[in-house]
Write a structure and sequence with these properties.
Blueprint lengths: L2 E5 L9 E8 L2 E9 L5 H5 L6 H7 L8 H14 L5 H27 L17 H15 L20 H29 L8 E2 L2 E2 L5 H31 L3 H6 L8 E3 L2 E3 L7 E3 L2 E3 L15 E4 L5 E2 L15 E2 L12 E4 L8 H8 L2 H10 L5 H16 L2 H11 L16 E10 L2 E10 L2 E8 L1 H6 L10 H6 L11 H9 L4 H4 L11 E5 L1
Antiparallel strand pairs: 1-2, 1-17, 2-3, 4-5, 6-9, 7-8, 10-13, 11-12, 14-15, 15-16
Length: 520
């Protein structure tokens, strides 16, 4: 007899996500991922000025902040025929770098770490660190007052729950520090982008802001604090947990999925379009020795199980030809997400996909030595190392930007007229994974606009061949020994860092039901 478990909504993520799993003999046998909110960003852009897309799509999400504006700008760089100057590339890189570090810090500490700690363990802390003692006093008082949010409500402890008072109290301390580090990262973006979230500085051809030396000094001062947290707190915590108390999670490889990985090029080092800090690539069936270059023409989306229709019932559409036509009564549909496929197959995107395609030596050596397999712990490890990799390059980019000051116009926006007819696409390897925007201009207005975002790749429903999406496949085999405590299900889903506001393209009220069960 199977237990059918529905988690709706999945909390501590961005957006509205419903996960349904079928459990037999304590193991997930089947799964369904449903984006339960629809938004009309693509539809509302039709007929508008192309530049509107930069600022409209950025409102897709307040967590991903600038990535949609950057991706849209890159699509329009192509459509307008703009060549971004070196200073413009550096400024874009510096804003994106701040976003990366701040976002990854938040994802681990504030959204995922509570899945692994027993907050009541803080009461047993016996050390003499004044900061940790202050946290102990505060938490003990909150426990007595039955007010331990945001660490509760949570699922019951299991074999992977951390209960050591020293470890838990330290992680709670870092949880609080992470909030401050995230805020500082946002300030770094705002220096060049005017504000954050929803910066206003990135545009086709470069950026709109001319920074001065005071701006660069301020950025360096702020970002140094974020870098310090990434390298000396975040990464060290991950190394300690991943090689110690949580090593069994990593070695078990829970939540691996298809072992198909895709990432895009990111952090351009010049304006040739060929030289990047990360080259990206495609790995199929876990064959790490055969990384293939990314080919945007192989990207297409299915709506077979989505609340959309395609003209002529086509099974897949390449994004330039993509359509967003709602059909809320469609038989067999269960999600507002489309199902992106690369060469007809589902792929994982995000930090783990980045690590599997870029293969940074230090990271690969560590996971090989520890025998950590692809899964939800590996995603956290890859995310932390990705932040470290970014942190090693930021100060160099600031110095390069400073060297360009006083040598002619710092930023040239290539103020070209809107083309009568053009098309362009932009790629961003965003903190949550590979993002692409696709724009078609006719008569100086947008005729079509499509966003294929990271969570759409990962959280997609089944496609026209009834092949599961990556969330769904990654849940197969997840242990759920107690159907009333599906903690490993949410640990796995949250490890992807879901962002449903971006993924679904009208808003549905959130349900107050956290969990319900149907026993068949």
């Amino acid at each position: 007899m199977a237990n059918k478990i529905v988690i709706d909504p999945v909390t501590r993520i961005e957006g509205h996500l419903r996960i349904e799993v079928e459990v037999e003999n304590g193991v997930v046998k089947d799964a369904w991922s449903s984006g339960t909110m629809a938004r009309g960003f693509e539809a509302m852009l039709i007929g508008r000025q192309p530049m509107d897309a930069i600022y409209v799509t950025e409102r897709s999400c307040g967590v991903c902040t600038m990535v949609h504006g950057l991706c849209s700008s890159r699509a329009l760089d192509m459509a307008y025929g703009c060549k971004v100057p070196e200073a413009g590339i550096l400024l874009r890189n510096l804003m994106l770098a701040a976003l990366y570090m701040g976002d990854h810090i938040q994802i681990f500490y504030n959204l995922n770490a509570p899945d692994y700690i027993d907050i009541t363990a803080v009461a047993g802390y016996k050390g003499n660190d004044p900061k940790l003692l202050a946290i102990k006093d505060k938490i003990v008082a909150l426990v007595k007052a039955n007010d331990t949010s945001p660490f509760t409500p949570t699922y019951k402890n299991d074999q992977y729950t951390l209960t050591d008072p020293e470890i838990v109290t330290t992680l709670v301390h870092h949880y609080l520090q992470a909030i401050e580090a995230r805020a500082i990262a946002q300030k770094c973006i705002a220096i060049f982008g005017g504000k954050s979230p929803h910066q206003a500085g990135v545009i086709q051809g470069g950026v709109t802001y001319h920074p001065n030396l005071e701006d660069l000094v301020k950025y360096k001062e702020y970002i140094a604090k974020v870098i310090d947290f990434v390298q000396n707190v975040y990464w060290k915590d991950i190394l300690f947990l991943g090689s110690g108390p949580l090593l069994p999670v990593g070695q078990a490889g829970l939540g691996g999925g298809y072992n198909n990985y895709l990432s895009g090029p990111e952090f351009p080092l010049d304006n040739s379009g060929k030289d990047f800090l990360w080259k990206g690539g495609v790995v199929t069936d876990g064959n790490l020795g055969a990384v293939q270059p990314l080919d945007g023409q192989k990207i297409a989306e299915s709506v077979a199980h989505s609340w959309y229709d395609y003209s002529n019932n086509q099974p897949l559409l390449q994004p330039f030809e993509g359509e967003t036509k709602f059909n809320l009564k469609k038989e067999g549909a269960y999600s507002f997400l489309k199902a992106p496929r690369y060469d007809g197959k589902p792929y994982e995107v995000g930090p783990l996909a980045w690590a599997m395609t870029v293969q940074p030596k230090e990271f690969m050596d560590i996971v090989t030595k520890l025998n950590i397999k692809p899964g939800f712990l590996a995603r956290h490890a890859a995310r932390a190392y990705q932040a470290v990799d970014v942190s090693k390059n930021v100060m160099k980019w600031v110095d390069q930007l400073a060297s360009l000051m006083g040598k002619g116009p710092l930023i040239v926006n290539d103020d070209k007229p809107t083309p009568d007819n053009a098309r362009g696409f932009g790629f961003v390897e965003a903190p949550r994974g590979f993002l692409s925007h696709w724009a078609i201009i006719e008569g100086k207005k947008l005729k079509n606009y499509q966003q294929v975002v990271p969570t759409t790749w990962n959280a997609s429903p089944r496609d026209a061949n009834n092949v599961r999406g990556q969330y769904e496949q990654s849940l197969i085999g997840i242990p759920v020994p107690d159907p009333e405590n599906p903690i490993n299900v949410v640990r796995n889903i949250r490890s992807f860092d879901p962002c449903l506001a971006c993924a679904v393209h009208i808003i549905h009220p959130e349900s107050n039901r956290i969990l319900k069960f149907v026993v068949e």
